Amino acid sequence: MNLESTKVTVQKSAQELFNLLSDVKNFEKLMPENIAKFEVIGDDAFIFGLKGMPEIKLKMKEQVAPTKIVLGAASDKLPFTLVANIDAVSETSSDVKLDFEGDFNPMMAMMIKGPIGKFIETLAGNMNKL
């Protein structure tokens, strides 16, 4: 299952945005308002929980400065990645798009497609809060 957020323009250079997204603590600022839990559990990992959903542990998997950051589920139960693709627009602005890719059975994919789609749109929409 693949989902993409809309492309969002942020008034930060690609490198500055990359640096902000490289620090997992900053993901708390991107979370939706209905966040039930957010806990940093290391330099490269955090746990978050939304009301009515199981907690998810995300870990930094890959960084390609200043264009790409890959977060992945730390559990094999829900195998997925969340990729932030950053494109420089100018020296003071950049575009970012989030791509979600998960390997789920059709029933699970049908159940989570809506909530996950909303979630990545919220993350992208909150990029200007960084």
From TrEMBL:
InterPro entries: START-like_dom_sf (IPR023393). It comes from the Bacteria. It comes from Flavobacterium xueshanense. This is Carbon monoxide dehydrogenase subunit G.
